[in-house]
Amino acid sequence: MSEAKWYVVHTYSGYENKVKANIDKTIENRHLEDQILEVRVPLEEVVELRNGVQKSVQRKMFPGYVMIHMVMNDDTWYVVRNTRGVTGFVGPGSKPVPLDDSEMENLGIKHEDVVVDFGVGDTVTVLSGAWEGTVGVVQSMNEQKKSLSINVELFGRETPVELSFSEVKKMD
């Protein structure tokens, strides 16, 4: 399987969040979580002055564009290209061109190699977030997304929770 890369998709202006939601829903429905890893609408924090009051707001960095971290193949290309609101991939003709690492760093997205000392079946403790302090057994791991799944008890039932590698540590 080829490695996932970041691609830029052109959308109708104002449809960025709808496109993100539609692609996220399609990923879930077609079980493409291992091929389309992340969909992002890049935002920046801006201070606006309105009626003499400074207000901090989030504004789209690239109106009309959505960034997608995915493994490019015929299925993923078709899913993204045929999402309502998408006008096409950025690149010459119909050939999508991935962003390189230097372009990604300029956007604040860094390529990081995380080395983990745990695997499927190991017991881990959650270090941060809503499940902080929870102990669970690793059920599955996704190296490309740098995430893992553990089962936690919620309302008397075992419920799977997806966490990033950096949110957990192996218990001794």
Structure description:
The protein has 172 residues and is an alpha+beta fold. The protein folds into two domains: 5-47 and 54-106, NusG, N-terminal domain (Alpha-Beta Plaits), CATH 3.30.70.940; 123-170, SH3 type barrels (Roll). The chain has helices spanning 16-30, 74-81, 101-106; strands at 5-11, 36-40, 43-50, 53-60, 65-70, 86-89, 123-126, 135-142, 147-154, 157-164, 168-170. The strands form three sheets. Strands 10-9-8-7-11 form a five-stranded antiparallel beta sheet, with no helix packed on it. Strands 2-5-1-6 form a four-stranded antiparallel beta sheet, with helices on one face. Strand 9 (147-154) and strand 10 form a beta hairpin. The radius of gyration is 19 Å and the shape is globular. The model has no long low-confidence stretch (mean pLDDT 83).
For the largest beta sheet, what order do the strands appear in spatially? 10-9-8-7-11
Multimeric state: single chain
Low-confidence stretches: none
Mean pLDDT rating:
83
CATH C-level name of the largest domain: Alpha Beta
Radius of gyration from CA coordinates: 19 Å
H and E order: EHEEEEHEHEEEEE
CATH topology value of the largest domain: Alpha-Beta Plaits
The number of distinct structural domains comes to 2
Overall 3D shape: globular
Number of strands: 11
CATH superfamily of the largest domain: NusG, N-terminal domain
InterPro entries: NGN, NGN-like_dom, NGN_dom_sf, NusG-like, Rib_uL2_dom2, Transcrpt_antiterm_NusG, Transcrpt_antiterm_NusG_bac_CS, Translation_prot_SH3-like_sf
Domain NusG-like N-terminal: 3-111
Keywords: Transcription, Transcription antitermination, Transcription regulation, Transcription termination
Pfam family, one: NusG
